[in-house]
Amino acid sequence: MLDQSFAALSDPVRRALIQRLAEGEATVQDLARPFSISQPAISRHLKVLEDAGLIETRVDGTARPRRLKPEAVAQLWNWLGQYRTLWEVQFQKLDAVLDEIADDEQQTSRDRGAGLP
Amino acid sequence: MNKNVEMLQLQVTQDGDTAIIVRRSFRHPPTRVWRAMTDPALIPKWMASMDTMTRCEMDLRPGGSFHYEWGGSPENSFYFSGPILAVDAPHHMTHVEYFNGDTASGTTITTDLEARGTGTRMTIVMRYADAEAREEAIRNGMTDGFDEVYDKLEALLTKA
Prior knowledge:
The complex is a heterodimer. Helix content of chain A is 68%, strand content 5%. Chain A is mainly α. Chain A has helices at residues 2-8, 12-21, 28-32, 39-51, 70-113, and strands spanning 55-57, 66-68. Chain A contains 5 helices and 2 strands, in the order H-H-H-H-E-E-H. In chain A, strand 1 and strand 2 form a beta hairpin. The termini of chain A are far apart. By secondary structure, chain B is of the alpha+beta class. Chain B has one domain (2-159): Alpha-D-Glucose-1,6-Bisphosphate, Chain A, domain 4 (2-Layer Sandwich). Chain B has helices at residues 2-8, 30-38, 131-141, 146-159, and strands at residues 11-15, 19-26, 53-58, 65-70, 78-88, 92-99, 107-116, 119-127. An 8-stranded antiparallel sheet of chain B has the order 1-2-8-7-6-5-4-3, with helices on one face. Classes of the chains: A mainly alpha, B alpha+beta. Chain A binds chain B through residues 2-3, 6-7, 9-10, 12, 78-80, 82-91, 93-99, 101-102, 105, and chain B through 8, 10, 12, 17, 22, 24, 26-28, 32-33, 35-37, 42, 45-49, 131-132, 135, 138-139, 141-142, 144-145, 148-149, 152.
């Protein structure tokens, strides 16, 4: 499912649709408004997002508003968080290396000051 | 302490369809950050989180190259290598990264270190060959977190 989610989000229009839906549910007409593409094209994008399990359709009389599936988006968010975490783990190690070489540099300059090689 | 945490705050953002921008600050000056990021004796101490680096070479000059390799046996080893395009120590470097020698799709990486007070502001821009390559890199970058996610999921399911 995650593979499908990432594929679904590889398209900038679909990412923009997710962003819009993060503000609350919306109809196809609402969603199409900011874009210079047709409603059928928007509907096709929405279908990709729905097939990926990121959004769902609510039946409200004759209206069919789309909304985010919170659990799917939360999971995706979690995974993007994992990517970020890997960077942070590396940089915290880099912080430690920097502290370590700073001590070395100080030691070296102290040794020089004391007339040692 | 809180101020420091805020100052170092990591930012990972997507730029356009193909790039990832990583920003972070360090409490040390650019010369020292540059040394830690480019000295082959120091790189293995921080780069990558799980496996130990088994080979680390860096010929740091325009027209030079690098080779970073992980994993002990041929079956589980992988490497990143590629040319160094630009070097302006201790502030700027541009290099191209190929995964396992696949020169068909490279990632162009620019690293900038800027002095901020007594510290450094680092900006890394990674531009992938296309949107798919970027998605794949994010996915692969996350495989190390698999177990943790499944554990969390399992805990959640057990509760429910």
